Amino acid sequence: EIDLLHSLVKNQERLLYGIFSNDYLALRNYFVTRLEHSEISHMAQLNGKTIAVGIDKGWSKAQFISRHFPGIRLLYVDNPERMLESVADGDADAAICNISTITYLMKKKGMTDLKISGWAKELDWGENRKFYFMAQRNAPELVSLIDKGLALITVKERNELEEKWFGTVEKDEFQIELTPEERQFISEHPEITLGGALTFDPFLIKNADGSVSGYDKDIIDLVSRRTGLKFKFLLDRWSVISKKLESRDVDGLSTCYQAK
Questions:
Q1: CA distance 49 to 33
Q2: pLDDT digits (tens, 9 = 90+) for 215-237
Q3: What is this structure's pTM?
Q4: Neighbour count for residue 139 (Cβ, 10 Å)
């Protein structure tokens, strides 16, 4: 009765009765809690507590939690919006959903009493969860047509769609989990000096006021947001910068090719 399902995660059970398109989106699942709740980074922290899940016992997230974390109570609700409302109302201690749905609903409903907590890494098996379309097994032509259409969607079009529907997340949803050694490194190295060539536009540009801009600068700014590392740039002639690396006056170099 249905020709196509959308936004599906691929698993062995579904492969038995459907065929999948190429993936068209990759997202992570995150915990959502109330503002006063402590941060959640591991599923085991919710043992003895209640997670709002949707939509029924056939939902893949619910099956995963029941199988691997039986100490967690599950509250079944009708849809993702109700999942977040259950947390806001105190009926559940947390919810788990993909970051884009969380962002969309929190902004749409003005849920200022909720926060995005840690990545539900166990649920995602440590990698971004991919979304697919799935068709009946007797319709390979339908999947072929969808794949050909997906392949023609440009990066610009994808970016516009993501901005339209998901917008910008206030909390950095891609914040990574750091090891104790990495945290210690950051505390011992409050600022990383990154050397670069003066004449390498548009990767690094030294502006008239002494500030630095360019593609590499923007990339490093994103790395800084994700990790907590702080960077400063030192631009000079490449021969000078190379010597500064040898003398350890800079910690690293930008825009380098890897020699074979």
A1: 12
A2: 999 999 988 887 888 999 999 88
A3: 0.60
A4: 14
